[in-house]
Amino acid sequence: MKKIFIKYNPYQVTTEILIDGNAPKKNSRLNFGDRRMQEWVDDLPEIFFEECSTREFELTFHGTVPDYEDILAMADEAKAKDITIKVEHRPAKEVKDKEAAIQEIFKMIQEGPFEELKKPDVVRAFELANSSDFEVNVVATMSAGKSTLINSLLGQRLMPAKQEACTATITEIKDNDDDHFEARVYDKNGELIESHDNLTYSIMERLNSNSAVSKIRTQGNLPFVTAEDDVALVLVDTPGPNNSRDPEHRAATYRMLSESSKTVVLYIMNATQLAVDDDNNLLGHVANSMKVGGKQSRDRFIFVVNKLDDFKKGEDSIDAALQKVRDYLADNGIENPNIYPASALTALNIRTILAEGDDDDDDDVYEAKGKVRKFNRNKEMHFEIYAPLPASVRGQIANRLQDAVDNGDANEQALIHSGVVPVEEAIRMYVRKYAKTAKIKNIVDTFITRIESAHTFETTRQQISQNEAQKKAIVDRIESIKAKLASGEDAKKFKTQIEKANYDGEIANLADKVITEAQKKITKYLGDTEKKLTRQEAEDVCKEFAGFTDNLQAEVQVKLEDLILNNVQKNAAELLEIYKNKLADLVKEVSIEDVEIDPFKMMMGEIPTNTSSMISELSKVERVKTGEKWIANTSKKWYKPWTWSQEKGHYEDIVEDREYINEMDLAHRFFAPIEETLFENSAAAVEYAKEQAKNIKKDFAGKFEELDRVLQKKLDELKACATDEKAAEEKLVDSRRKLEWLEDIQHRVNEILDI
Questions:
Q1: Fewer CB under 10 Å: which end of the chain, C or N?
Q2: Smallest Cα–Cα separation from 262: which of 297, 215, 305?
Q3: What local confidence, expressed as pLDDT, does residue 619 receive?
């Protein structure tokens, strides 16, 4: 039996693995680098067997509880492969231990002796990381009960809910723990057109039917989370795939479903009505996303099977209904989905009607009480037992249920049985496991490089102040660095290197691949039917073609947007590397014993740790935030929408005034201009990416000049330490004090990321 030790740090995203006390070989698949555990945990049984040629293991896992539970799930699934993994847990510091320490350190930094650590960009970076929104996108097809589920999560009727499709706008609902909802209303150009300090159902109903309204941003209380304890949660209610006035809404749906997004998706399905075309269109996209990124990609998709309580006794079982859902999702390429059965209406009625009154003469109250009795009496209707939650969360729900039983609270018992509480816990679990650990790392990253740069500068200042014998050599070295910094020849060389940074060919090739994939989808969709159609049938077929085209447009648009942004980021990353190399070159062939003057180390705190922060500040690429990911908001600038393919678009030109029309001929005539536009948009995306790359180079050049001025100032201060004895003595005392403070802060910051 092999003994395995795994230490996983979700805050630093580092992994240490030992087999019988020895590290894996360099070419081992167990060297996971900086990949998140959920990306590789499912592969462990197979890798263990490959590495050790045995099927029995004792695994000691040192990590947080959420990650430990994923290890347990992996070990349980390994049994099906005839691999036995006994797991022991060595506890680690959890998220709550970290957040208080972060606040304390930030306060110390703001009260500390370093002005450069109090700069607005440092404060802004901390505040942005500390208050980052986390999106939960709610997607559903018509009549799945999406608005009812959202209302049940809100604990009040705010979103319009009807049997027919009724969501025509994007509504963002941000948690701030207030006892009422405020709203800001925007048109498709992003202009504010209305605001409401006390949002109501009737106002929402009016706004949703107003064709001028494109987006509603609201703030209020999401009862199942607290604003101060959790990442700021934002529920995003999106129109159905075939129920949007604005093509950008459809693109927004495809963005958050894409594999590059890390937002949670509540995909609501109607248990009584599976296999609708809307589902088929979206589920293929979901399947592709879930195949990239391992367990995290699966965790972020929560499939809520709603209306399961509508089955009549004896007609079907909950187990059979859920198996039908699994089979249906598998047919669409989705394996091992997280399925949560629910009755959103029951939960909503408990939280509204039964919370407000107890009058059995009221028909609504009487009906709601009937559902409470049904859920509490019928064990098959205890939906929480079907939820794929880890043991720790199941324990929390079981304790809550027992409290309700002990208190005789029938409504609370039925609420838990309705399945909505497990859905809420699944969202909270994802936030704790992924969003909070990422948030902690982002905050600490805003500190580390700046603190290290400040430490390097103060150490150099101390070394110079103490070094009487080599002060002339020190001054000469500083002057040499300043001369190189001001050198016209070096500046010309640097400019040439910047101009050479180019990914135009790469983006053109990638764009071609996107278009080729889209063409394949069109070919597959067309088939080869020679059926004769009447004029009315031809119009109906054209409407079907238009629906397919609209979805394809959104998919292609999002993929091309990603290519544009990736091209910009690659250019930006290369520019940063060029500047870092320039700093490193400043001190080549120049050295002084016992004194380190390193512009690279001194300036690292001034240089952004990632390209996104610089792009957001400098670039003219218009961008919008979606969950953890920034995407280019470029559709209005370069994209040619296929609006003419929508209903009553160019049908009159295609559906000829004759008795019968050949379907294949109709399809080719309909899609010919579609394919032409595909190539036009591909070329437009490539040209737009080139334009943005030029803008990035121009903007970054300005930023680099600013950084050069900061370096000049630091060099002047170091020179003063070597030429002014009185100043040197004062600086020595000051540096000792600052270094002592910095070392304490560094120790505290490093402890935050330790487990």
A1: N
A2: 297
A3: 44
Beta pairing, strands 170-175 & 232-237: antiparallel
- Ramachandran area for residue 275 (φ above 0: left; ψ -120 to 50: alpha; else beta): left
Beta-carbon contacts of residue 343 (< 8 Å; ≥ 6 apart): 306, 307, 308, 309, 371, 375, 383, 418, 419, 420
Among residues 100, 97, 70, which one has the least CA distance to residue 85? Answer: 70
- Look up residue 712 and give its two tokens: 């000049």
Return phi, psi of residue 448, to 5°.
-55, -55
pTM of this structure: 0.75
What is the pLDDT, as a whole number, of residue 654?
60
- 335 conformational bin, left if phi > 0, alpha if psi -120 to 50, beta if neither: beta
SS3 186: strand
Do the Cβ atoms of 352 and 156 come closer than 8 Å? yes
Distance CA 190, CA 434 (A): 31
Cβ–Cβ under 8 Å, residues 396 and 360: no
CA distances 612 to 161, 573, 632, Å, are 39, 9, 11
Which helix or strand (DSSP H or E) is residue 133 part of? strand 133-140
With a CB cutoff of 8 Å and minimum separation 6, the contacts of 89 are 60, 61, 68
Task: Pull the structure tokens for residue 558.
Answer: 């999002």
Radius of gyration of the chain from Cα atoms?
30
CA 49 to chain centroid, in Å, comes to 34
Pairwise CA distance, residues 84 & 564, whole Å: 47
